[in-house]
Write a structure and sequence with these properties.
The protein is mainly beta. It has one domain: Neuraminidase (6 Propeller). 9% of the residues lie in helices and 28% in strands. The strands form three sheets. Strands 1-2-3-4 form a four-stranded antiparallel sheet, with no helix packed on it. It has a four-stranded antiparallel sheet with strand order 5-6-7-8, with no helix packed on it. A hairpin with a 7-residue loop joins strand 2 and strand 3. The chain is globular, with a radius of gyration of 23 Å. The N terminus is likely disordered.
Length: 236
């Protein structure tokens, strides 16, 4: 009985002690300057299914542009992702309109979805399927049906692959949700100010109203989604 007890205790000790002794602590590499030429604030960061790293952030409403950059070497070096003409020695970064909040999200294939805010008016949306080599751009893609007045947008992607889902949705996938603070800056309408607008898209560029059954609002092409402002969408 004693021998069995010692073996059991020894096995228990080995199973728990080895991982603890071999576990490495969290470490960080030497910081990298993403772009020493174009400075930007409020950075957004994301990693796609291929392990590529992307960052974005606004340079300010006055510039009407935001930076969007990607890395294929683990964040050691970055190159610019351009939704407009490629940068050249004679032509600077062409990313209008924008310069406000930015957001990036991915689906399981590595396709990337991007949204940029310009001057609290509306959103510029974009998507890329090849890591930023080519970009499909949609001016005012997020709020063209709800009038001017937008702020603080967020993206979330419904993209169930190889899993069982209880969602009643049976349409095309992935389904991209875009939530933003609808300021309701429309003259002559009774549009509420400050609620969250929920839109959806299957290509990440063209969006439509995501919430059905809401009442039509005077002066608007789409009904209003009366959620609280600045909500971060999440899908379980």
């Amino acid at each position: 009985m004693l021998a069995v007890g010692l073996v059991a205790v020894g096995a228990f000790w080995v199973a728990h002690a080895v991982p603890v002794r071999s576990a490495a602590g969290i470490t960080f590499s030497t910081p990298t300057i993403v772009d020493p030429i174009h400075t930007f604030g409020e950075p957004d960061i994301g990693i796609d299914a291929q392990g590529r790293l992307f960052v974005s952030g606004p340079t300010g409403t006055g510039t009407q542009r935001s930076m969007w950059e990607g890395s294929v070497d683990g964040g050691r070096t970055f190159r610019e992702v351009s939704a407009g003409p490629p940068p050249s020695p004679l032509l600077g970064t062409e990313q209008p309109p924008g310069g406000g909040d930015t957001e990036v999200k991915f689906d399981h294939t590595g396709k990337q979805y991007f949204a940029d805010l310009y001057a609290l008016a509306c959103l510029r949306t974009a998507a890329t399927s090849d890591g930023g080599a080519t970009v499909q751009n949609g001016i005012a893609g997020g709020c063209e049906t709800t009038g001017p007045g937008a702020d603080r947008q967020w993206l979330s992607v419904f993209d169930p692959v190889g899993v069982t889902t209880q969602s009643p949705y049976t349409g095309p996938l992935p389904l991209v949700y875009l939530d933003y603070n609808d300021l309701g800056l429309v003259a002559g309408s009774n549009y509420p100010n400050g609620g969250a607008q929920w839109n959806k898209s299957t290509d990440g560029i063209n969006y439509t109203q995501a919430i059905s059954g809401n009442p039509q609002v005077i002066g608007q092409a789409a009904p209003y989604a009366p959620f609280g402002a600045d909500g971060y969408p999440a899908i379980d």
